[in-house]
Amino acid sequence: MNLHLVRPKNISPTSLRNQGYNLINLLQSPSTTTKQLKQIHVQLLLRNSRSHSILYLHNSMLLAYANSPTPNDAFAFFATQMGHLPWDKYSLQFLLKASSKSKSLIHATHVHLMTIKLGFASYTTLMNAILCCYALCDQLQDARNLFDVMPHRDIVSFNSMIHKYAESGNMDDAFHLFQQVPAPNVITWTTLVFGFSSNGDLSAAREVFEWMPERDVVSWNAMISGCVQNQEPVEALQLFRLMLTQNVNPNSITLCSVLSACGSLGALETGKWIHVFVNKNRFRLNPFLGSALIDMYSKCGVMDLAVEVFRCLEGQNLCTRNALINGLAMNGHAEQALDMFNKMVDDGFRPDEVTFVGVLLACSHGGFLEIGTRHFYTTMKEFGITPVLEHYACMVDLLGRSGLLMEAEKVIRNMPITPDEVVWRALLGGCRLHKNVDLAEKVVIEIEARGSGDYVLLSNLYASVGRWEDVEKVRKIMKHRGIKKRPGCSSIEVDNKIHEFISGDNSHPRYAAICEKLEELGMKMSEDGFSAETSVVLYDIEEEEKEQALGHHSEKLAIGFGLISTVPGSTLRIVKNLRFCIDCHNATKFISNICNREIVVRDRTRFHHFKDGICSCRDYW
DNA sequence: CTAGGGTTAG
């Protein structure tokens, strides 16, 4: 692009105007580079017209800078060029946009003062922008003070204020203000839905959603994503179906949320249906939709389709790459995950902390001790990434499963940040794997466990080495402290419907048939000499769980149901909320062989792909 | 050109 410097003297009025339009086009085009902005800046310095068209040009310059990666340049331009030339409320508006982007409280305050001084306080639009800018700079009280003294408040003022309260977790003030809105519109109601759900009160959000006089696609999106973020994916899918029956057209944002729900449920059929919907309705495969699709396929254990989507995307960004790396790592394709990472770095893309969670996860699942250690101690540093809790958890897991329990403990003791229970539990996992009871006891004390998972793990560990008195002791502690074991829950999707099974629950309509099937399999298994040490492993701590020792862990129920309700030979996909139980893992290997089925189970941390009696985790999880 | 909804980890 050629930018000719204009010498004002030699230029006719017409060509000046044309030149102005060209510059405005450039200023308003998103593809104009910062360098070009600077060239235009220089050109404008050579002019000194006081006409209205130059004002428009100057304002365009401000806006272009505000939208650029260096928004503060807008202020430099304003100070040097516009001090002695006319400017108006739009100039201030764009300066505010620049303040917002750079989160500059000083600039916002400065514009606020100018606004008051010049008698622009009655321009509500401008005042609203100032209000938003204060809130963005975490000065919620300043925003509220401004709100209270504004000569006029319109619906935008109210909505902004309510939204900022909601965002900061202050639903009391948000709701109080909502009640004062003279005529709430759809946006106001939606803000309230968003507020309640993002503060964890899904039922309040749902109530508002039902109450609101009308709903548009954004309202539906707020409600659906609220369900997803509050771990209610089933409700999210139900709402999505309801939305379709009410003839509200979903957009790509809706689909992102719904795909995320499918992922957490392992609902492959529904996920595929949405993928078809995406194609049929010609949605662009942007990075958002792309990541959501990759994640959905990954979490359903279908990596070839995840890779296929990755290849078809219009554009890649950090998220799409991270989604694929993590998917590969979770599904046990450790080498491919690392290849992907290396390629990304070779191509000059900067990994972030999420990338390294995936990389370390891959090393952990692949048992790549050296590579993982190098990435943790060297590569991350090279990219200027400070390890966070998740990285430590991965690293402890990697050391632990490699049998380096002492090193793992040392890593935790030397952490510059306080280890959380996830980190400690990673070490506990290593203790379980290598049957190190002493360290496990120490770790459990460290955790000051609030959840019961740690005690259960410890108790299982005692059981696995035959220390029954200790098993009993832990049971008593749990009872004494009122700690409940989190029930195991597994789900399977059959004919687009999610069936949930809770450990020991017999409420499923086909419960009897499921038991019959499991019994039949149990017979075959014992004929083949499958009993091994199950009595040891199955000894559990709660009375009611002894009943489940008969083969009614949630994953077994789900597998039994899958076997009797799908066509022979088809793949079973199951999602479990806890760690895979050892006995069930053994049984599933066996079942995959005698029933000639591929069985994919996603547990709390990773995937198990069973085929012909073998599991992809190599019995190492 | 001021107000509402989105993807990736654990």
Structure report:
The protein has 33 helices and 6 strands. Among the domains are: 387-486; 489-615, no CATH class. Residues 1-13 and 532-548 have low confidence and may be disordered. Helix 18 runs antiparallel to helix 19. It is mainly α and 621 residues long. A 6-stranded mixed β-sheet has the order 2-1-3-4-5-6, with helices on one face. It is 65% helix and 5% strand. Strand 4 and strand 5 (607-611) form a beta hairpin. It is elongated. It binds one DNA strand of 10 nucleotides through helix 5, helix 7, helix 9, helix 11 and helix 13.
List keywords for this structure.
elongated; 33 helices; disordered N terminus; single chain; mainly alpha; 621 residues; DNA-binding; 65% helix; 6-stranded mixed β-sheet
Distance linking N and C termini: 58 Å
Radius of gyration: 30 Å
Shape: elongated
Average pLDDT metric: 86
Q: Strand count, sense and closure of the main sheet?
A: 6 strands, mixed
User: How many extended strands?
Assistant: 6
Helix content: 55-70%
Alpha-beta content class: mainly alpha
Q: Which spans of ≥5 residues are poorly predicted at pLDDT below 50?
A: 1-13, 532-548
Number of helical regions: 33
